[in-house]
Amino acid sequence: MMKKTKIIIVGMGGQGVQTIAKILALTAAQKGLEVSYIPQFGVEQRGTPSVAFITLDSKKVNYPLFDIADWAVVLHPRAIAEAVKYVDKKTKTIFDSSLMGVEKINKKPVDIFGLPAVKLATENFSSRLANLIVLGQVSRILELPFELAWKNTAETLEKKLKNETARKASRDALLLGYENLLEKKSFSKPDYRPKAGTIIFDGDGKQGFLISEHCKSCGICVAKCPIGAIKMGHNTGVFASPLPEIDIAKCSVCGTCSLFCPDGAIKTERKK
Amino acid sequence: MKTNKSKKLFISGNEAAVLGALDAGARLMFGYPITPASEILGTWIKEAQKNKGLQFLQTEDEIAAGFGVLGAVLGGVKAFTASAGPGHILMQDSLSMAENMRLPFVGVMMQRGGPSTGTVNFSQQEVSLAAFGGNGDGLRIVYSASSIEEMYELVKKGFDSAWRWKFPTLILGDGYLGKMKADILLNRKKSATIKSSPILKEGIISTNLRNCYSSERSLGEALRANIADWNKTKVKIAESETFMAAGAEILILAHGLVAAAAKEAVLELRQKNMKIGLWRPITLNPLDTQSLKRAVAGARRVYLFESSLNQFARIIKYELFGAEIDIKEITKPAEGFTPEEIIGLIK
Amino acid sequence: MDKLFPKSYKQETKPHLFCPGCGHAAILKQLGEAIDELGVQKNMALGIDIGCSLLAWNFFDIDTAQTHHGRTASVMVGYKMARPERLAVAYMGDGGAYAIGLQSLLHAVLRNEPITVIVVNNENYSMTGGQKSPTTRKSAEGGDLRGFKGPEMISHLAAKNAWVGRGSVGNPRQLRVLFKKALANQMENKSFSFLEVLSICPVNWKTDAAASFERLKEMEKIYSLGEIKIDDEKN
Q1: What average pLDDT does range B175-188 have in this prediction?
Q2: How far apart are the first and last CA of chain B?
Q3: In this structure, are strands B181-184 and B9-12 parallel, antiparallel, or unpaired?
C-alpha cells in the first residue's frame, strides 16, 4: 500500500514542466497506482510560472489539488514564489541547485535536495534537456522503473526525437537524472547562475550586445545572419535556455539580427 | 414628438426611453432593429437628424451594437443600446465584458415572449438574463419600469447609475410598455449630476484594460474588489415602491407592468374594504431587501404575480429565505395579467 | 548602445510574454517603430483581440483595451465615433478577424469606418494549441485549400479612399512602411484601412527558426505583399 503522495513541479513555461508531469503521471498509472494530474498555467504558453499538481495513491484520487505538497520540485528561480505557497517544513524539496540558492524556498530546510539539472544538462547535452534529468530523478524517488519512464518519454516526445542523436541524448539525460545522487545539505553553489545583464562581444572596432534577460533563445538571429556569424553558445539565459554568441570578428554589422529579433535582445554596431 | 415641458405628451414607452437618454446626456446609440424595441432606434435617429451633437449606428447585429457601446464609453461618451429577446441574448457577450472591466454600458430591453423568437409583444422572461446572464455573478444594475413616465425616469437614472458606479445597467420594460402610448405629464429635466469622462484616460501613463487573467488568484483578486464595491453600493442603488401596504393583510409582489395591473387591483379591492397592498421592486438587481422584509412582515397572505416561470420568485425567495412566509406564486410565462384577473385570483 | 526597442513600448512589461520566436513580438516591434515615426503614441487607442494577440494588452505605453474574441473591430468603431480625433486601431489574429469576427470586419469595411484593422495571420489558432483556422491551408483530410485572401476580399468591398495591404514578418522594413501607410490613411482620408501581416508560429508549427521562415516563404508565394488594390467598379 502506498501512502498518498502529493507532488508539485514548478518552473517557467517552456521548461517542459507539464511534459515531465504528464510522463510521471502516466508512468505511475502504468505501474498500478491511482493518479491525478492537473496543470495550472496562464494564457501564455511561455515565460510565466507553470505548475503541475500530481497526486499518487493506492486508492482512487478524487480531487486533483491540495494545499501542501509532500514533494516540491522547483525548476526555476522565477517560479519559487509559486512553489512556496505549497511548501511547509515537512515538504521534501528538490531544486535546481545550479540555478538558485536554497534559502528562498525553505528557511529551515529539513529535507531539501539539490539537483544541478541545468548545469548537468548543459555540460553533457543541452540545457533544453534539464527537464528530463529532473524527470529521471523524480522517477527514481517514486520508485518508478526506468525503462517504463523512458518508454513514456520516448512516446510523448516522439516528434522531437526523430533523429537518433536526439533520441540518445534524451535517454542519456533521463538516465543521468535517474542515477545522479541528490546533494543533501551540501549543495553545489548556484554559481551556475544564468547570465545576467548585457553580454558584450567586443573586437575589431565592432561591438555586439546580447540582453540576456530578453533573449528567449528562438534562434532567429542565428537563422537570419547572412554570413553565419551567430551561433547558439553555452551560456544559459534567464529562461534556462542557451544564448546565442556573436563571432564579432566575422560580423559585418549589417543589423539583420536586431531587425528580426522579436525580443529586442541583440544589437551590433561599429564603435564610435 | 413634442418635448415641451409644460404640455402633456402622448408618447410610447419606447419614445419615453429616448427622452430619458437625451436628458441623461447620451450622445450615441447603437442598435439593430427588433420588435418591440425598434422605435427606440427610430426615434433616436429622428432626434439625431435634428441635433448634430447626436450620433447613431445601425450595426450588423446586436453583438456589434453591444460592443460598439463599450467602445464609445471607453472614449468617454454616454452611449446606449436597446433590444429584446434574442438580441438581448447576443448582448450578454458585451455585458459580461462590461461587468469584468466595470464599463458603464446602458441598455434598454423591451422583453418579448421567449424562449427563442417567441412572440414580439410581451413577457417578463428576460429577468434572469438581465440580472444573472453571462458567466459572471450578476454585478449589474437592473431596473424594471412600470409605466411610461417611469421608463423615462429610469433610463435617465440608469445612465447616472452606470457612470457613477461603473456597473453595466439595464432598464427592462415588459413589451407592452414599449409599444403602448399614453397621455402623460413628464417632468423633463436634464440630469447633470454625473458627467462622463474617457475610461481610456489619454494620460501621460497609458491605461491598459484587460478581461483575461493568468491565474485563479489574479482574477479572484480583481473580482473580490468588484464584489466589495457592489456590496458597498447596492443599498444606495436598490429601490422599491410600497403601495398601500400599511396595515395590509394581503400583499402582492409584482414588478413592471404586472405591478401596474396589480396596482389597479389593489385600488379596487381597497374600495371593497380589503386590506391589501403592493410591494414592487424598481431595481430587480440589487433588490431592496430591507423594504421587502418590512412589507411582508405584517402580511397574512402574500401573492406573487409574474409573466415568467419563477424568475422573479427566485430573486424574492432568495432574499426572504428563513422568513417563513408562505408565498402564493402565480406565473403566466409570456402572458399578461389584467387587473380583473388579479382580483379574481385573490378572491 | 543604441535603443533596442521602440519608444512607444512599455518597458516594465518586457521581456514580453510571447513565445520564443513569436511573430507577434516582431510585428508589434515594427508597429511600435511606425507609431514612433508618426508620433501618434499619445493620440491613439489600441483594441486587442482574444487569442495570442491578447498578450499585447499591456505591451505598449498606449491606451489599450482587450476585448472579446472577434469583437475588437466593433469596439474600435464605437471608440472612433466617440473620439474621432484619435487614432483607433484594432489588433487581431486570423481566427478573430476571419472566423468569429468576420461579420463585423466586413461591415466595418462596407461602412468605410475610419479605423485601422491589423490582422496577424499565422495560419492557426495558436493560443489553444494550433487548431485549424480559416487561413489554414490543409483540410482535416489533408487536402490542399486555397487559403483565405483577406485583403483581396476586403479590397473588393472597400471604398475608393480605403487602404488595404499585406505585409510579412519576413520583410520588417516593408512592414514598417505599410504600418505607417495604414495609420496615415486613417488620419488623412478618414477612411477604413486594413493590414494583414503574414506571421510565424514556431511553437505550434513545431518548426525551428530556419524552418519557420521557410514556411513563411511558401506563404509569401501564395499571398502578395504590399498595397492590395482591386478595382472592380463594374462588378
Answers
A1: 91
A2: 43
A3: antiparallel
Closest partner CB to C62 (pick from B74, B206, B210): B206
Give the pLDDT confidence score for residue B2 in this predicted structure.
45
| Per-residue cell: B32 | 439593430
C54, C61, C82 ranked by CB distance to B76: nearest: C82
Contact C206 A159 (CB under 8 A): yes
Give dist(CA B137, CA B168) in Å, integer: 13
Chain C residues touching residue A209 (CB < 8 angstroms):
1
Preferred mutation among C10, C11, C54, C67 to probe B, highest tally of B CBs within 10 A: C67
Domains and CATH numbers, chain C: 23-126+146-193+212-227 (3.40.50.970)
**Chain A within 8 Å of C12 (Cβ-Cβ)?**
no
CA distances from A123 to A130, A192, A234 (A): 11, 11, 9
Question: For the whole prediction, is pTM greater than 0.90?
Answer: yes
Q: What is the CATH number of the domain that holds A176?
A: 3.40.920.10
Interface TM-score (ipTM) > 0.90: yes
Q: Which residues of chain C does B57 touch, with a Cβ-Cβ cutoff of 8 Å?
A: 77-78, 81
Q: Among all residues of chain A, which has the CA nearest to that of B219?
A: A42
CATH number at residue A266: 3.30.70.20
Nearest alpha-carbon partner for A115 in A20, A252, A13, A211: A20
Which domains are present in chain B?
Answer: 9-184 (3.40.50.970), 240-346 (3.40.50.920)
User: Cβ B79–C78 below 8 Å, yes or no?
Assistant: yes
What is the secondary structure of C201-220 as a DSSP string? -HHHHT--HHHHHHHHHHHH
pLDDT band of A208, cuts 50, 70, 90: very high
A152 and A223 together in one domain: no
pLDDT at B171: 98
